[in-house]
Amino acid sequence: MAKNNKGPDKTFWMVTFSDLLSLMLTFFVLLLSMSTMSDATLQRIASAFEEGLGVMGRSGPFGIWIQPQEVMVNPRMQATYREQMEVLHRNLSSRLEKLGTQAKLGTDPQEGVLALSLQAEALFPSGRTQLTERARQVLGEVGEVLRHVPGRLQVVGHSDNVPMAGSGRRADNWALSLARAVNVAGYLARDVHLDANRINVAGYGPSRPVADNATAEGRATNRRITIEIYARQGG
């Protein structure tokens, strides 16, 4: 029986030829697109690739470094916001001064936040979560000011790093800080009649100290409630 031998495939060259045609087509399309670009655009592309490949030592995490653009903010908007924060700061300071409460106020113009910090001893009995009568007076004064300020509020509880005696939920500094924040937020919403939808609650326990826990004074400073006022957000 005759052996069927077709020999080598004489059409194999067409695969290489097709690849060559594809490359040439891509090359001419690239030339056409580059001919329509401005010199400035080509310069930016070249610079991005040069820096991205590490030629200038400024490559980014994905091999291309892009120069960040500076965001310009309307100076009048900055002035208006600063004025609003100053008025809010004065109103809160005036009310708290009348009560003789030790409180700290700080502003962060970039984040749009005014933070009111109240020491826990002014609001709660030691190791407890129930508000004192004094705390209700303080929060009432604070709430009267916040009632007229649009924006989101966040009530945050903090503690020192000393383990609490006993067992159960209140023996955990994290749970204690959160429970205190919840009670402050609840009082502002329920008794001071602030919109509950504006209020968020968090408890950070000992994780965000502002003073040295090695001293009694530092631990007292760390045991606090902060009310963060995001006045730039919608109410």
Order of helices and strands: HHHEEHEHEHE
Low-confidence stretches: 52-74
**What's the CATH topology name of the largest domain?**
60s Ribosomal Protein L30, Chain: A
CATH superfamily of the largest domain: OmpA-like domain
Q: Would you kindly provide a written description of the structure presented here, covering whatever features stand out?
A:
It is a single chain. Helix 5 links the parallel strand 3 (152-158) and strand 4. The model is unreliable at 52-74 (pLDDT under 50). Helix 3 runs antiparallel to helix 4 (133-146). This protein starts with 12 loop residues before the first helix and ends in a 5-residue tail after the last strand. It has a five-stranded mixed sheet with strand order 1-2-5-3-4. The protein is elongated and about 95 Å long. The protein folds into two domains: 13-52; 75-230, OmpA-like domain (60s Ribosomal Protein L30, Chain: A), CATH 3.30.1330. It is of the alpha+beta class and 235 residues long. The protein has helices spanning 13-35, 39-52, 75-99, 133-146, 173-190, 216-222, and strands at residues 103-108, 113-119, 152-158, 199-203, 224-230. It is built from six helices and five strands; from the N terminus they run H-H-H-E-E-H-E-H-E-H-E.
Write the layout of secondary structure elements.
Elements: H1 13-35, H2 39-52, H3 75-99, E1 103-108, E2 113-119, H4 133-146, E3 152-158, H5 173-190, E4 199-203, H6 216-222, E5 224-230
Parallel strand pairs: 3-4
Antiparallel strand pairs: 1-2, 2-5, 3-5
Helix pairs in contact: 3-4
